[in-house]
Amino acid sequence: METHPSFDAYIGSDGVTLDARDVALLRAIDREGSLNTAAQSLGRSYAHAQRRVVELEDAFGALVERQRGGAGGGGSTLTTTARELLAAFERTRASFEGVAEIAETVIVGTIVERDGELVTVETPAGAIRALVPDGDGEVQLSLRADAVTLTDPEDTPVPEHTSARNRFAGTVVGVESGERIARIAVDVGLEQPVLALVTEDSREKLGLDDGSEVVVSFKATATRGVAVGDADD
Amino acid sequence: METHPSFDAYIGSDGVTLDARDVALLRAIDREGSLNTAAQSLGRSYAHAQRRVVELEDAFGALVERQRGGAGGGGSTLTTTARELLAAFERTRASFEGVAEIAETVIVGTIVERDGELVTVETPAGAIRALVPDGDGEVQLSLRADAVTLTDPEDTPVPEHTSARNRFAGTVVGVESGERIARIAVDVGLEQPVLALVTEDSREKLGLDDGSEVVVSFKATATRGVAVGDADD
DNA sequence: GGTCGTTGTTTCGACATCGATATAACCGAA
DNA sequence: TTCGGTTATATCGATGTCGAAACAACGACC
User: Which of A146, B6, B163, B228 has its Cβ near the most Cβ atoms within 10 Å?
Assistant: First the structure.
């Protein structure tokens, strides 16, 4: 079974949500210069485009400067509000994209202490501090590869002097070199190796290869988990 | 205008996508012990529930062990496949949730070098390495607060010995203390201060307060951006 | 083996969504 | 004044979604 996590991003305001299709519409308007040709270029009906623009403006404010009549019959241009909205959407979409495509390490453990949503989880490799909204008992922590920092064992700051206080010494058990980005698997005593995404640059500077000793560290606030099993929902 | 980035998470397989409603359905089946009462408890029709389960099983494999006849008329239980799927969904949803709710710092800069999707961006505070899929010229980088590590200036490893090679010295210009988590704003010479999410614990250990000197660092692979303006799309 | 209660399955119709189409209003330019 | 291309609005029909209800299957119990 080939499963793939994915998402639909949108920006909500006032009950109306601006999604990818709306973004495509606004982009097309910007590109084509009119609602009519924009809808046409997207293979969608003009009626829908017009309806939707009105609907969006109701929630987000003026988005499209419309002009009818005149030379060429008129046309439409985007307001700066619309452009800011597009940029904001693109940014959040890029962030979500990162989460969806980047490998994660799943760590199974048990909550032994809770302080608000900050918990201490007991794992085979030691205690890990993480964010778990609620629940109790067994948890699955999701550690994203881009949140894991690798450092040279000889020059790793003491935990008291950094905000990344989840620290584990381990050995590299796998290197998957990409064009510019490498995926490093580090065994730290957990069931699965911890995956870390680093630039090829960093890999060379740290001299990482199979068998290398390295320290992996990650922040508690970047480690999110969900209670599984005997949760109190 | 109050805008809020949000998302719909789902897990795709074979063209079919398992979304939040499907998860609610499976949860209800697990809780109620039958499709019938599950649908009822969700206020949805039984027909839909049954159809949907078949559809999902077509793509994901056996999810619901159905039993009809017998004492009590029968019932349904989830397979381990279904439970794993639920856990996987919850994990990715939690990750997305983090992206959606956590503050980000928007950094505007200009691409001065590109090597695959790895770029060097020129900013008022200096060069930043980041991931930008494509485009050119002006970019907006999105730096998530939970990806920023703070370290004591006196005990910060040299860049060659860590994979977090975006480093900037700065001063704390704002501390927003929560119950267990603090949001630290650090001025590093950019238009906006960089936001970092750290545990209260870390804040105390590092002695962070307004005016404190601190080093912020973050990985290139955790810094995603989008080209804006003269992009070649 | 028949009965009975519960569940799984299928069919049908109501409802919302969306596209296609038609029409009116608009305004600069020829 | 006419023309041309656009935006704004209303209506109709196709399509897909969903719920209600009828239908079929199952197995313990009598």
Answer: B163
